[in-house]
Amino acid sequence: MGQHPRYRRVTLAVLLLGLGVGWLSVHRFWMRTLLHLTGDAEWIWVTDSLNRVFPVAGLFVAPLELDEPPTHAVLKVCGDREYVVYLNGSAAACGWSRPGFRLDLYDVTHLLRQGSNVVAVEVRSPTPAGGVLLALDVGGRGENVLVSGPAFRLRRVFSLEGERPDDRPPPVRWGRPPRFPWAYPVAISRPRTLDQTVVEEPVRVEGAAARPLPGGGVVFPLPTRTFGYLWLEFEGDGACYLAVVDGADPEDLAALRQSAQPVVRLSGQTHWLDPEPRWVTHVFTFGRRLPRAVEVHPVVEEFRSAAPGVVLGKHGPVPRTRWTTRTPPE
Fold it and tell me: In 3D, which of 282, 298, 89, 280 has the Cα closest to residue 201?
């Protein structure tokens, strides 16, 4: 005989209650865990103008005074879609989101000093939607002594110096985790900062060695296939689109041009970092403002699997979600 409808309803209610209690327990566990990691850190962003689609970039800057050299310091950061963190002018960390959101943890003790320090995080997105979450532990001062929120100021012109008169409070403070769509980013320990990961001289190609392309743009051929971080060097502002190739020149240049990704940078920014290290043989650039040089900073094999910007999955590195919302390059 089948169950009485009343019993089925009671069974379903008990099951749903159990699932709800289980979800709440997991939610509270992760909230305690993440709050321990990031404290009062808030998701902040550069704009709340979401009525049209356009790429955005910003630089959040905060001062940090230390009475003595830190015994240890841990940087914790998640950026949607891309971030680059600079400590006292040095590129210390980089990463990206989608698919997935990760809270990257770095030991940055060697990059902080007694006295005045400047913490800056560059953020980028192909659309106006995004966010960055950051917290910093400093030995001798405590956990989360500097967190994303009111302590940071937004800068529209790229400069890694201290306070400037045109700095402004964050236009958007989404609030503390959990917030949609980031929920609770997965914490990942990064054993080395950017400066510790790159230990060899960069492979540099000057603009004079670049080859013009039919229909506009240039390609920078590297003298040897290299795995590392791509830096673009500019002189002046203007739109640029990028396609990185590992292998021979592609036969379908039109398709490559169409798939090129926007180089989203701030006014006055002369050096731009791709936060995902990769194999490179050719760097194709299109647009009104082309780089005057490119550099690939090599990553030695033993550092690659845990390098900043590398996300490992079950079957190797996880591919990024391509930036599809864009204006085709000139």
Answer: 298
For the chain, which residues make up each domain, given as ranges? 43-192, 198-317
Q: What are phi and psi of 307, to 5 degrees?
A: -70, 150
Contact 120, 85 (CB under 8 A): yes
Number of neighbouring beta carbons within 10 Å of residue 100: 13
DSSP annotation of 255 reads H
pLDDT in tens, 160-185: 999 999 999 999 999 999 999 999 99
Nearest to 215 by CA among 253, 249, 255: 253
Please report the pLDDT score of residue 323 as a whole number: 79
Q: What is the pLDDT of residues 266-312, one digit of tens each?
A: 999 999 999 999 999 999 999 999 999 999 999 999 999 999 999 99
Beta bridge partners of 232: 272, 294
Which CATH superfamily, name and number, covers 198-317? Answer: Galactose-binding domain-like (2.60.120.260)
Which amino acid is residue 282, in one-letter code?
H
CA distances from 304 to 35, 53, 89, 301, 308 (A): 30, 35, 24, 5, 9
Q: How far apart are CA 300 and CA 307, in angstroms?
A: 10
Under a CB-based contact definition with an 8 Å cutoff, are residues 230 and 295 in contact? yes
Instruction: Please state which CATH number belongs to domain 43-192.
Output: 2.60.120.260
Q: Indicate whether 14 pLDDT > 90.
A: no
